[in-house]
Write a structure and sequence with these properties.
Length: about 450
């Protein structure tokens, strides 16, 4: 999966001025509420793609925007120069054949609920000077801030016309308060080029007890807030579905079922540090500025790599010195010093060609130290710091991909089920997206020090 857009979203762009009702062109902000020239804009938080290496990019700039940069795996949401948020205003009951005429004003944001062939409800939205809106989806149109494509298990974006995406063109929107504490809220569905959201006759929709309308998108927007925050004491939370109006529901029987789940009144759509957002084909992690201050930095990860290499771990059989490669080299073919691990037992070796057990599978090897048979893979240090719960030493590896991180980070992600398909869940490596295997999904690494 790939997000396409600015690494720091919130700067003005050409489309902000050309598209009516788009990107803060409705009403100017009040004096004094924006950052002064030369000041850093207020950051609301960052979205990090699960399953992509840190800083991964496409081969070139997007052809869909003149002011957006390259595709990236991590994007920051910052306060816009002018507010572009919207909020519900007036509700109209109208004959369904007249809906298109009623929605002809592109400057008017609205949500249309088709109840039958003859009856529709249109909820008009008005400008909200207190919020900024950011939209996420598969569409490459200008109103989408982050263009998201599907990620296959094992990492990498599914691209090309032959790949059928399950991500909605206008998947969801995030509204951030422009004033402290800069609360971010998520809503299912995004507004299209005509500033409208359509929920057709077959979409799940209903009247709420207070007489308003609400609904769900076809494949849904799922959110999971971690228990205990995103820290060393975190535990996975419960997956919920977010409605078009931001209400929280239990999951449907299947992803696209027309019958909604039960309303969860004591939970909200407010994003927390470590909240996961699943768009049925792509999963994003939300990090707050305060949470990122607790995360390890790239300099700390590099220092840990150098410290691990300075210990001069050795292959217990070949007695060669092992060393983690520099991230600058990229994940290319392993070199002769690359550490390899038997993922069932955790014993770390240099590469060798013996011990194959092809009768059990092409990747199965027998560890020469403990005789356990299982996958034998190269080790790679995870380089997306925002995915780490703590700055602990790289002591554990995910199975079967071999990405290395701290024990608490490995155990948290190994216990976190990520949505897959219409109703399945699998734990996956956050660095590459590979589904985890084995009893625990990760293994403690056992290094042998130098004999001298």
């Amino acid at each position: 999966m790939v997000l396409e857009g600015n690494p720091e979203v919130g700067a003005p762009r050409t489309s902000d001025l050309q598209h009516p009702g788009n990107k803060g062109s409705c009403v100017l902000s009040s004096p004094g509420e924006d950052a002064q020239p030369g000041e850093e804009p207020i950051k609301y938080g960052e979205l990090i793609i699960l399953g992509h290496p840190q800083g991964s990019q496409s081969k070139g700039p997007s052809p869909h925007r003149a002011f957006c940069g390259r595709r990236r795996s991590r994007l920051a949401l910052s306060r816009r120069p002018h507010a572009n948020g919207v909020k519900p205003d007036v509700m109209h009951h109208i004959s369904t054949p007249l809906v298109s005429k009623a929605l002809s004003n592109r400057g008017q944001h609205s949500i249309s609920y088709t109840l039958s062939r003859s009856h529709s409800v249109i909820v008009e939205y008005t400008h909200d000077s207190d919020t900024d809106m950011f939209q996420i989806g598969r569409s490459t149109e200008n109103m989408i801030d982050f263009v998201v494509t599907d990620t296959s298990p094992g990492g990498g974006a599914t691209e090309g016309p032959s790949a059928q995406s399950t991500i909605s063109r206008y998947a969801c929107r995030i509204l951030c308060d422009r004033r402290p504490p800069y609360t971010a809220r998520i809503y299912a569905a995004g507004f299209d080029a005509s500033s409208n959201i359509f929920l057709g006759e077959r979409a799940a929709k209903w009247r709420t007890p207070d007489g308003l309308m609400d609904g769900l998108t076809t494949n849904g927007v799922l959110v999971m807030h971690p228990a205990g925050g995103f820290s060393e004491d975190s535990a996975p939370g419960v997956w919920r579905e977010i409605s078009v109006c931001g209400n929280v529901y239990t999951l449907r029987d299947s992803r696209s079922a027309q019958q909604r789940g039960k309303l969860v009144e004591n939970e909200s759509n407010v994003l927390q540090d470590g909240s996961l957002i699943d768009l049925c084909g792509a999963t994003l992690l939300w990090r707050t500025p305060a949470g990122l201050l607790r995360a390890p930095t790239l300099k700390q990860l590099e220092a840990q790599r150098q410290e691990a290499n300075a210990a001069r771990p050795q292959c217990p059989v070949g007695l060669s010195t092992l060393a983690f490669p520099s991230p600058a080299r990229g994940r290319t073919a392993p070199d002769k010093q690359q550490p390899w691990v038997y993922v069932r037992c955790g014993h770390v070796h240099g590469y060798h060609g013996w011990g194959c057990r092809r009768e059990r599978g092409p990747q199965e090897r027998e560890c020469p130290l403990c005789r356990l048979v299982g996958p034998y893979v190269p080790l790679w240090l995870g380089q997306e710091a925002g995915l780490c719960l703590d700055p602990g030493p790289p002591s554990h590896a995910f199975a079967p991909c071999g990405h290395v991180c701290s024990e608490k980070t490995a155990r948290y992600w190994a216990q976190t089920p990520l949505p897959h398909g219409t109703h399945a869940f699998h734990a996956a490596c956050p660095f590459c997206g590979a589904w985890l295997t084995g009893e625990h999904g990760c293994v403690r690494l056992i290094f042998q020090g130098p004999l001298d």
